[in-house]
Task: inverse folding
């Protein structure tokens, strides 16, 4: 009788954990219509109400993102204690005064599609890494530097190495590449 009760309790506990994980997983959240707009200023320096996406703001975005290099990966994270890839972009853009959706696939719907040979710093890149047999965009990053046509670096959150910059033109990243966007 005790073992039957214990099994029932274990099953209930596992169902609760599974429900929590599915609820917290971005893949299972209901898709919302989100817009991409300038983020209202909320800091003491009072940036202009309407920011332009130009070379100065791109440099500011890249500098802000690079401040997080070395921060560990944390699913759902958006601060210096840990970040995931879309959290890095969300937080970086917010700090510079722009609004960007929180989830990678939502971010991939923002802005103008561009070809890979048109990439420039500040552009966003999106990937399908097929972790968990997912066929949707599940990873994002921002172009930070173009050294030559085959050395195009982007910043992102690696699940094993944290926030870092990698060359887009490696075998792995090119095999996962889905699309690129110019956000403004």
Result:
């Amino acid at each position: 009788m005790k073992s039957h009760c214990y099994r029932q309790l274990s099953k209930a506990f596992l169902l609760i954990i599974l429900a929590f994980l599915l609820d917290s997983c971005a893949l299972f959240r209901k898709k919302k219509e989100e817009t991409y707009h300038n983020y209202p200023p909320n800091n003491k320096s009072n940036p202009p109400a309407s920011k332009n996406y130009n070379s100065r703001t791109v440099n500011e975005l890249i500098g802000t993102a690079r401040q997080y290099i070395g921060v560990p990966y944390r699913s759902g994270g958006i601060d210096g204690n840990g970040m995931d890839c879309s959290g890095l972009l969300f937080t970086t853009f917010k700090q510079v005064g722009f609004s960007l959706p929180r989830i990678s696939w939502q971010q991939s719907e923002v802005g103008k599609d561009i070809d890979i040979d048109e990439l420039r710093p500040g552009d966003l890149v999106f990937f399908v890494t097929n972790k968990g047999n997912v066929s949707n965009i599940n990873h994002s990053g921002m172009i930070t530097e173009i050294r030559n046509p085959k050395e195009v670096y982007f910043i992102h959150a690696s699940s094993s190495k944290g926030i870092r910059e990698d060359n887009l033109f490696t075998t792995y990243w090119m095999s996962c590449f889905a699309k690129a966007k110019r956000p403004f």
